[in-house]
Amino acid sequence: MTISNEQFRAAMSRFASGVTVITTRDANGAAHGITVSAFCSLSAEPPLILACIHKDTGSHYAFLERQAFVVHILAEHQRHVSEQFALPTDDKFDGIPPLDSSDGLPVIEGSLVTLECEMVNTYDGGDHTILIGKIVYSEVLDDKPLLYFHGDYRKIAP
Prior knowledge:
By secondary structure, the protein is mostly beta strands.
């Protein structure tokens, strides 16, 4: 038995999650980024994360080229960042100037969590590529997360 794309999307929209933006630079130094909902921790020893990016996204090649990326777990006040990086625009960083990590990767300031990662491996995941990253640097701020549930952004009630 198979389910339709609509049934799949309806089921997955009921999974509440944090919101992440993943950034990198291509071989020419151009900054790239994309909003990613498929993200999770994978291993504590070594510290690994897993993220999935759609193969048709314009930035897909840059993540494979650079073999390093930054995961930004967004804070409640960063809804505009999530929305902007989800759009198919040429300059995702318009109005959101990135800082540079020690390795020259673009970092979005004010994120709840910033995880700088080296690519460990990639895997085919249907219409997505599964990225496995080893965390080499992290920064955690004291703030509330941006949440996504049933097709809309949510907040943690006080």
